[in-house]
Design a protein that fits this description.
Blueprint: H1 6-23, E1 28-29, H2 30-42, H3 47-59, E2 63-68, E3 76-81, H4 83-107
Antiparallel strand pairs: 1-3, 2-3
Length: about 140
Amino acid sequence: MDDIDLTGEWLRGLLGTCALAALSRGSAHGYAVVQQLQAAGLGPIKGGALYPVLNRLERDGAVTAQWREGEGGPGRKVFTLTDAGRKHLASLRGAWAPFAETVGLLLEEPEAPGAAGAGSAPAPTSMATVVPAPTTTTSGDRS
């Protein structure tokens, strides 16, 4: 089990959040998002992992995408955070500290048998309310 890339395992769950955070710094194409995340220290990220996440964020209304002509190369899909995406990211930022604290408590080594309080679980900490992902609305007159 020691050969498991835990950073990769954790990143899969947080890749959408990290992509939103990268896009909060400005519009970017997928490869630029990968570069930002790698520069932040998250290790190698494959486009095959990121692009489905970006497409889901677009489908959910958190980002928009627009094709732009490349400079001396092929066109690129550039992603931009929407107002709904900014609000969702703000909610995620607010919920991060309680979530990370909870996970941290779960990952702590249990007390040795016979130690004071052994056998009793630590009191659970309350997590911030889970915020649902932005929903996609369709345009069209339904009246």
